[in-house]
Automatic annotation (TrEMBL), chain A:
SUPFAM superfamilies: P-loop containing nucleoside triphosphate hydrolases (SSF52540). It comes from Streptantibioticus rubrisoli. Its main location: membrane. This is ABC transporter ATP-binding protein. It is found in: Cell membrane. CDD domains: ABC_NrtD_SsuB_transporters. Residues 21-253 form the ABC transporter domain.
From TrEMBL, chain B:
Keywords: Cell membrane, Membrane, Transmembrane, Transmembrane helix, Transport. It comes from Streptantibioticus rubrisoli. It is found in: Cell membrane. Residues 275-295 have a biased composition (Low complexity). Belongs to the binding-protein-dependent transport system permease family. This is ABC transporter permease. Its main location: membrane. Residues 75-259 form the ABC transmembrane type-1 domain.
Length: 264, 310
């Protein structure tokens, strides 16, 4: 949590629209999540600080996507309360962008047109849209593919385009559902660095779902463990986003803890 | 990799090999030849071709007609009727289909009515049209409209219901509202299905416009064809039929091509059944083709292939 204050000064240094780009605080109080008649997570208490990167790990089917969909207001909470900066969530909004686990690019739009969409919704003028979309695509290394249709690029390129689309709308919170799930270890490490790079300066709050413990420990300021229909624990991560911290004893101990709690 | 990028989605369709066009023309010519042989020899083997006009009779009658003014009046009358009816059906069918698929209230209010009216053949609505409309003209347009309306409505409804939910959810989490979802997700996503309905619709529209003209028209290809029949002018009847065939083919090709153009984003398999490797091209090192150009060729032909089958 302490790192949230480390990130915030950086966003002041960003030239573009510093006032519109801030993190947001998301709080779940005694929340029950899931679909009607089928609760998946019960009694979740979680406070996600502004600008924090919270990673979420848990076995398949434990409700990670359910948590993100609830935070994006695509699913209403079954009980309890979910607040954004102290106000209850009122429907989906551009402030909380969701990067879906499945491919959610619109297949009839080129990558650039997909990235332009949140800008169009945000009433950015047409010429400005184009420039910003190209910038975002270049930032995720897709400048050469801006005019390709999604099905003409690789799976990893689609995921990067989704990342660009989510960030282009300058959301205050980015909810990411296993965005690097289908990638090999090498590309995945590259994407993690890219993500850190791209997030730097946006100041956005990030909830990052993954089933890869190492990824969770690298990216997150904190890691939330889900399992058995509950939020098992939330742990602070020592030296986040530091590749040299792998053999840090505190990190090793945390990794062991996380793996054992996932094993049960 | 960077070379083909700027052309993506706007690639030119290369023409199919000349041999395929030749084959199509030959097939048509063979059918005409068979007709000519059967009729000029007055073949009477259970099927009786002795009274049948020959191809040359029809061709002469056609030439006569085309040089007269009536033929073109008939043609433009029929075309105006079908275009008006069909466009109305396209707009209202898509609107109705989207409404019924997306709104429970609309489904409850309109659903039963539509289901009851749908099984009635459009041509059976002639009495209704006569009662309702001040002139035959509007009646015929109404019947044409009804014919195309239901196929368009039903396929729009189905394809809107079959949309991948995550597309809509993505736009929701970008802050998009109802209209944005309608314009950016529902309509483009349902387009392949909508064009399925439009293709069926234009076909039934022709059937109904011709039938309606036969029953109650003044001018129009169907009216003229029926007139020729009542005065036992068989070559004239065939001129009418050929005209209907050609017009129908033109209009449905227009719909088909428009549909292809608008749904070019649909992913296609690169698998081509029965495709043979063409060694002549790849084995010819004499032509100094740059590598980039050569790698583009297969993707271009692969996509063009099924676009030319109909
Ligand atoms: N559309 C749905 N309708 C009903 N139940 C669902 C639906 N999607 C998921 N569930 C149920 O909710 C539970 C949690 O699903 P969820 O998608 O949140 O899991 P997850 O943690 O994201 O898993 P994974 O790591 O495999 O993506 C599952 O047990 C699943 O059966
Ligand atoms: Mg999931």
């Amino acid at each position: 949590m302490s790192t949230s204050s480390d990130i915030k000064p950086e966003l002041r240094t960003v030239a573009q629209a510093p006032s519109s780009v801030r993190g947001t605080r998301l709080t779940l109080q005694a929340a029950t999540l899931g679909r009607r008649d089928a609760p998946v997570l019960a009694d979740v208490d979680l406070d996600i600080a502004r600008g924090e990167i919270l990673t979420v790990v848990g076995p398949s089917g434990c409700g990670k996507s359910t948590l993100l969909r609830t935070l994006a207001s695509l699913l209403p909470p079954l009980a309890g309360e979910i607040d954004q900066d102290g106000h209850p969530l009122a429907g989906p909004s551009a402030e909380r962008a969701l990067i879906f686990q499945e491919d959610a690019l619109l297949p009839w739009r080129t990558l650039r047109a997909n990235v332009e969409l949140p800008l169009a919704i945000g009433r950015v003028p047409r010429s400005e849209r184009r420039v910003q979309a190209e910038e975002w695509l270049a930032r995720v290394g897709l400048a050469d593919h801006a005019r390709q249709l999604p099905h003409r690029v690789s799976g990893g390129q689609r995921q990067r385009a989704q990342l660009a689309r989510a960030l282009a709308g300058r959301p205050r919170a980015v909810l990411m559902d296993e965005p690097f799930g289908a990638l090999d270890a090498q590309t995945r490490a590259g994407m993690q660095d890219l993500l850190v790079e791209v997030l730097r300066g946006t100041g956005a709050t990030v909830v990052f779902v993954t089933h890869d413990v190492d990824e969770a420990l690298f990216l997150g300021d904190r890691v939330a463990l889900l399992g058995a229909g509950r939020l098992l624990a939330v742990r602070d991560i020592p030296r986040p986003r530091d590749r040299t911290a792998l053999d840090d004893p505190a990190r090793v101990a945390l990794r062991r803890d996380v793996l054992t709690s996932l094993g049960t | 990799m960077s070379r083909p990028a700027p052309r993506a989605g706007r690639y030119r369709r290369p023409l199919p090999p000349i041999g395929r066009y030749a084959l199509r023309v030959a097939a048509l010519a063979a059918a005409l030849g068979l007709w000519q042989v059967l009729t000029s020899l007055d073949v009477d083997l259970w099927l009786r071709f002795s009274q049948f006009p020959t191809v040359t009779d029809v061709a002469h009658a056609f030439a006569d007609r085309v040089s007269g003014a009536d033929y073109w009046t008939d043609l433009t009358d029929s075309l105006t009727r079908i275009v008006t009816g069909f466009l109305l059906a396209a707009v209202l069918g898509v609107a109705g289909g989207v409404l019924v698929a997306r709104s429970r209230l609309a489904e409850d209010l309109l659903g039963p009515l539509l289901e009851v009216v749908r099984p009635i053949p459009a041509i059976a609505l002639v009495p209704v049209a006569i009662l309702l409309f001040p002139s035959n003209e509007e009646g015929i347009v109404f019947i044409t409209f009804t014919a195309a309306f239901f196929p368009v409505l039903v396929s729009t409804r189905h394809s809107v219901r079959a949309l991948t939910p995550v597309w809509e959810e993505a736009v929701l989490t970008m802050g998009g509202g109802r209209w944005r979802i309608l314009g950016s997700v529902v309509l483009p996503g349902a387009l392949p299905g909508i064009f399925g309905g439009l293709s069926v619709g234009i076909g039934v529209s022709w059937i109904c416009v011709i039938s309606a003209e036969m029953i109650s028209g003044q001018y129009g290809v169907g009216y003229r064809t029926w007139q020729d029949y009542t005065i036992v002018n068989y070559p004239g009847v065939f001129v009418g039929m050929v005209t209907i065939g050609v017009l129908g083919w033109l209009t449905s090709t227009t719909v088909e091509l428009l549909g292809r153009r608008l749904t070019r984003w649909l992913p296609r398999t690169s698998y081509v059944p029965g495709a043979r490797p063409t060694p002549s091209r790849t084995l010819a090192p004499a032509r100094p083709a740059p590598a980039a150009v050569r790698t583009e060729q297969p993707s271009g032909t692969e996509e063009a292939r099924d676009e030319h089958l109909v």
